[in-house]
Design a protein that fits this description.
Layout (H helix, E strand, L loop, with lengths): L2 H9 L6 H12 L5 H21 L8 H13 L4 H20 L26 H9 L7 H17 L3 H5 L1 E2 L4 H6 L2 E4 L4 E5 L5 E5 L2 H14 L27 H14 L8 H16 L2 H8 L4 H4 L1 H17 L11
Parallel strand pairs: 1-2
Antiparallel strand pairs: 2-3, 3-4
GO molecular function: DNA binding; tyrosine-based site-specific recombinase activity
Subcellular location: Cytoplasm
Organism: Melaminivora suipulveris
């Protein structure tokens, strides 16, 4: 049965049984759920009762096997894994309440799970767009802001940093950075010492463009905070805002979005898209999954393997465009 068909039957169904109405009243009075949530719970119970009627059973007489079959039918009918998970959650709440009331001996929905949703592919820029953004300069922009934003783009795309890792960088190494779990940049060594997820530190090499962009930024970084305004500058933070405090992730998102628009990119760019682009482009060139894992700071290589799927898409496109046997010829040609 398709989801639409099941919904139509649920909408035209007889009134809910007394136990279902009692549960909804409990959810309204005791749990104080919002009207929208109650409406969704009601729809979930109507679906459950519609499925039960097909088998000639009451909702409280259903077992785990029945619920798994209902979930499989919804999935086969085209309902998304997330949608099924939400419906099962509604059923699970009903049966949990029924068990507490002594109406059933156990919760048949307890161990019923929705189908796994496919993991979305990371969104990466084409190489030309990523390079265009990295090389983009705005001559009419404020030199201080322009130097800072250019350096941020170089670290995001050139080093594959997370936005939290970027804003957590200090300009130089210090004992305070070690104690407080912050990273820093080493221009002489051309490395960024990054403090990532799970408290893991890693060293990421910086290419010449990133080093040059950082050098240009560091020359200007303290310039607006001379004299009486010197105390406003965070002396440790690599990237600061106009008021001198360490820049926030939200500001990086905003600046990157604006910069991608002025660079003429059709897709608004966010920081993690540049991290995805870094990984995808590096993997396309090197095919070294372990190295990419280390550079990204992934604890498990399974996480990094998502980029092999992205890389396969790229290879498939090349094949479709270039291989003489990839294109199906029309009859008579």
């Amino acid at each position: 049965m398709s989801p639409d068909k099941a919904d139509e039957q649920a909408a035209a169904a007889p009134p809910l049984p007394a136990e279902a109405l009692a549960y909804l009243e409990h959810a309204r009075v005791q749990k104080r759920l919002a009207e929208r949530t109650l409406a969704l719970y009601t729809q979930d119970l109507q679906r459950l009762c519609a499925h039960a009627r097909q088998l000639g059973l009451a909702p409280l007489a259903l077992g785990s096997a029945h619920l798994r079959r209902f979930a499989a039918q919804m999935h086969a009918g085209g309902r998304s894994a997330r949608g099924i998970a939400l419906i099962l959650s509604g059923w699970r709440g009903f049966y949990t309440w029924a068990a507490r009331q002594g109406l059933i001996s156990h919760n048949p929905a307890q161990d019923v799970r929705a189908p796994k949703a496919p993991r979305p592919l990371p969104k990466a820029l084409p190489v030309d767009d990523a390079v265009r953004l990295a090389e983009h300069r705005q001559p009419q922009a404020d030199p201080w802001t322009e130097a800072r934003d250019a350096a941020m783009v170089e670290l995001l795309y050139g080093c594959g940093l997370r936005v939290g890792e970027l804003v957590g960088l200090d300009a130089v190494a210090s004992s305070q950075a070690h104690r407080q779990g912050r990273g820093w940049v080493d221009l002489e060594g051309a490395e960024a010492q990054v403090f990532g997820k799970g408290g893991r530190r890693r060293s990421v090499p910086m290419g010449p463009p990133a080093v040059q962009a950082l050098q240009a930024w560091l020359v200007l970084r303290a310039e607006p905070f001379a004299g009486e305004r010197a105390q406003r500058l965070d002396a440790h933070a690599l990237f600061v805002g106009e008021r001198g405090a360490r820049i926030t992730a939200q500001t990086v998102w905003l600046r990157l979005r604006q910069r991608s628009q002025t660079a003429g990119l059709s897709t608004p760019v966010h920081p993690h898209m540049l991290r995805h682009s870094f990984a995808s482009h590096l993997l396309q060139s090197s095919q070294d999954l372990r190295a990419v894992q280390e550079l990204l700071g992934h604890a498990s290589i399974t996480t990094t393997q998502a980029y092999t799927r992205l890389d396969f898409q790229h290879l498939a496109q090349v094949y479709d465009q270039a291989h003489p046997r990839a294109k199906r010829r029309e009859p008579g040609k």
